Amino acid sequence: ALRNAGFSVEFVSENDLIVEVILRRRDDETRVQWFYEEETSRRFFPALDDPVFGFRLHNADNAVNKVLCASRRNSAARDAVDLVNIVERYAPLGPLIWAASGKAPDMAPPSTIRSIRANVFGYAEEEIKAVRMTDGSQMEWRRVRETINDALEAASEYCDTIAPLDLMGCLFVDVNERPVEADTTSIENGVVSVMA
Fold first, then answer.
1. How far apart are CA 189 and CA 195, in angstroms?
2. Could you please report the per-residue DSSP string of 64-131?
3. So what's the pLDDT on residue 94?
4. What b/e readout covers 19-40, taking b as 16+ CB neighbours within 10 angstroms?
5. Which residues make Cβ contacts (< 8 Å) with residue 23, sequence separation at least 6?
6. What's the predicted TM-score (pTM) here?
7. Of all residues in the chain, what percent are helix, strand and coil, respectively (each to 5)?
């Protein structure tokens, strides 16, 4: 489907765990990865039609998968930059970390938070600056550190004291299907939907 849409596809790596390709069309290129892991294959939402790629994951599933990636690998500084963009433009980390435990039962929220902190804060300033945004700009290391630190502190508070324990591993979304922090009252009142 990608080649039919005019993309050239260069395989960077393919093994039992991951496939990584570089897609190019005219002067544009992007790196795409997908995993052969059951945990990243489980979705909270159905795949969405996409005019270029054929289909894509719902933004909420992409965000939960990014939390998993940031907690499991320490070799992709873009994970840290992506987390900042998620926090600033899309959703708080708390409900994403909570939902990630449903995809990866071995990753309870405290463990996920510790792993993200260790991985993200392990990147050198040069590694963060090497990541380019779609507009070509760079993100400052200080911004990454401050944003992720604050987001992880808030996520820890949410997971420890607010999130409903009987719904561990569920994703909570608002009427626009955006992840939100939920408590038992907001769920019972129908303000928040539970995605299992």
1. 16
2. HHHHHHHHH-SS-THHHHHHHHHHHHT--HHHHHHHHHHH-TT--HHHHHHHHHHHHTTS-HHHHHT-
3. 98
4. eebebeeeeeeeeeeebebebb
5. 2, 7, 8, 9, 10, 29, 30, 31, 32
6. 0.83
7. 45, 20, 35
Rounded Cα–Cα distance for residues 81 and 78 (Å): 5
Residues 6+ apart with CB under 8 A from 69: 76, 79
- 10-residue averages of pLDDT along the chain (196 residues): 87 73 90 68 88 89 93 90 98 98 88 97 96 92 97 98 96 98 97 96
CB 172 within 8 A of CB 179: yes
Positive/negative CA dihedral, 21, 25, 27, 30: negative
